Amino acid sequence: MQDTDLYAANDNVLLLEISKGSRIAFNVLYDKYWKKVYNLAYKRINDREIAEDITQDIFIQLWTRNADSIILDLPSYLNTAARNGVFKRLGKEGKYTELPDNVHEIENPLIGADSQILHKEFLDAFSELVDALPQQQRIIFKLRFNDNLTSQEIADKLQISPKTVRNHIGRALITLKSELVLFQLLMIFYHK
């Protein structure tokens, strides 16, 4: 591909050229997205130098990434990379601690056996509600929240449109939210 054509190329073409070692393609992509990535990092961390470091790290990763790793949606990839870069940096500085996957791992003397039982009942009820969703909603909901797939990845996997995926997720969340509010009210009255 001619170097001058790269300035008009889409992200996928630029990524392909970068994987072949094209510095011009990298520079085009860098110029196109640097400010956006920097702003994403800065909004979360509110420190100019750290946001610049995070942004540089992301573009270094983009330059050195394995040619086999495919990026389907570059803006989403960069957004996620910026968010993860901020969390990683905060973690190094001790300003961010991930919550454990299991609530029982949190050491708090105020949490008694009743709270643990209520929590387990709540999680069981949530699981039952998810399983009671219509089949397509349930599949999409689990792919999104259990497997952490994006709407586009789910759409590709199920051969449906991303808008259909978002609609199913929205309907599932509305159903779950209304049912869980009712469940919480019942639990409050039951355990008084």
Global morphology: globular
Mean pLDDT: 78
Task: Encode the helix/strand succession as letters.
Answer: HHHHHHHH
Oligomer: single chain
Q: Which CATH class of the largest domain is shown?
A: Mainly Alpha
CATH A-level architecture of the largest domain: Orthogonal Bundle
Question: What is the CATH topology assignment of the largest domain?
Answer: Rna Polymerase Sigma Factor, Chain: A
Portion of residues in helices?
A: over 70%
Low-confidence stretches: 96-111
Instruction: Quickly give the structural class.
Output: mainly alpha
Q: What's the gyration radius in Å?
A: 22 Å
- Major sheet size, sense and barrel closure: none
How would you characterize this protein structure?
The chain has 192 residues and is mostly helical. The chain has 2 domains: 3-92, Orthogonal Bundle (Rna Polymerase Sigma Factor, Chain: A); 103-190, Winged helix-like DNA-binding domain superfamily/Winged helix DNA-binding domain (Arc Repressor Mutant, subunit A), CATH 1.10.10.10. Helix content is 71%, strand content 0%. It has helices at 11-19, 23-45, 48-64, 74-92, 113-132, 135-145, 151-158, 162-190. It is globular.
